[in-house]
Amino acid sequence: MLVTLAERPDLASATYAIPYPPGSAKFMAGSLASLLVRGRRVARLWPHLVVAMLDPACDRPVARGIMVPFRGRGSLPARGWDEVAVWAAEDALDEVTPDTACALEIAVHPEHQGRGHSRTVLEGMRSAAASAGLGALVIPVRPPDKAAVPSMPMSDYVAETRADGLPADRWLRTHVRAGGRVEAVAPCSATVQAPLSDWRLWTGLPFDRDGVVFVAGALGPVFVSASEGFAVYVEPNVWVSHRVG
Ligand SMILES: CC(C)(COP(=O)(O)OP(=O)(O)OC[C@H]1O[C@@H](n2cnc3c(N)ncnc32)[C@H](O)[C@@H]1OP(=O)(O)O)[C@@H](O)C(=O)NCCC(=O)NCCS
């Protein structure tokens, strides 16, 4: 069963408490843009755009889909996730009427993965976007399996298909099967700039030399300036558009 937090505000905490699998990219918490659209704020401003899938046996959320609304600005930005987070916050501050939903996250409880729940959540998001009067749903998709090949350019990764023509990547394939259209790579979608002390905490790695470091869970390289005391990760994502309704 699918609900939004507008329908079931009592489920906000349980919905946000759905964990990521162990070993997931902790360093993404260092994204500054993500602070603008933190969970509680989205739940307060746009509860109708936070979708929860409930386990009918216990009425508890097992998956979530989180969207923010914004006014389209012509084309999908190269600075994908980060830029839309800023646009959504700007539009809310400026009281601009949105026309597009952007999904920031879809997560399925680790104990409930591999059962097609993400497709159900996607469908719930399309219908929630339509009910909100938004004409489009776009997603800066983060294919987690890309972390296995962090040196491969995202454009090459996206181009890999199976014999049936569907994307080789399972998460992109799920989107395409659900009717999504791969639009473009967002080459600098999510940026984490942080002091080396943060990177050491997140990864357990020494970060003691200038250059490139490959970190578990990252889709590309992390650039380190040991001499200046910081490292920067710029994550590529993939813009996918879905019909609403
Ligand atoms: C990515 C995620 C949302 C997929 O949700 P899900 O409900 O488990 O996915 P599905 O059951 O619909 O499976 C999708 C595809 O992945 C495959 N798959 C599922 N779990 C898998 C695993 N552990 N390893 C490899 N393939 C797997 C499925 O077989 C399916 O492919 P197929 O249709 O060709 O058989 C889920 O793994 C998740 O929450 N991950 C953590 C959060 C995240 O990374 N979200 C995406 C970025 S926002």
Task: Note down, in words, how this protein is organized.
The structure is a single chain. The chain is an alpha+beta fold. It has a single domain (2-188, 237-242), classed as Aminopeptidase (3-Layer(aba) Sandwich), CATH 3.40.630. The protein has helices at 12-16, 33-36, 39-45, 80-94, 117-131, 154-159, 170-177, 196-203, and strands spanning 2-4, 50-55, 60-70, 100-108, 136-141, 181-195, 211-213, 222-225, 230-242. Strands 1, 2, 3, 4, 5, 6, 7, 8 and 9 form a nine-stranded mixed beta sheet that branches. The mean pLDDT is 97. Bound molecules: coenzyme A. Residues 20-21, 105-108, 113-119, 142, 144, 170-171, 173-174 line the site of coenzyme A.
Summary tags:
245 residues, alpha+beta, Aminopeptidase, nine-stranded mixed β-sheet, 8 helices, 9 strands, 29% strand, globular, binds coenzyme A
Taking all Cα atoms into account, the compactness measure Rg is 18 Å
Major sheet: 9 strands, mixed
End-to-end gap: 17 Å
- Write the H/E string, N to C: EHHHEEHEHEHHEHEEE
Which second-level CATH architecture applies? 3-Layer(aba) Sandwich
CATH fold title: Aminopeptidase
Instruction: Report the portion of residues in β strands.
Output: 25-35%
How many strands?
Answer: 9
CATH class: Alpha Beta
Range of helix content: 25-40%
Structural class: alpha+beta
- The low-pLDDT segments are none
- How many helices? The count is 8
CATH homologous superfamily annotation: Gcn5-related N-acetyltransferase (GNAT)
List bound small molecules. coenzyme A
Shape: globular
The tally of domains stands at 1
- Average pLDDT level: 97
For this entry, what is the oligomeric state of its chains? single chain
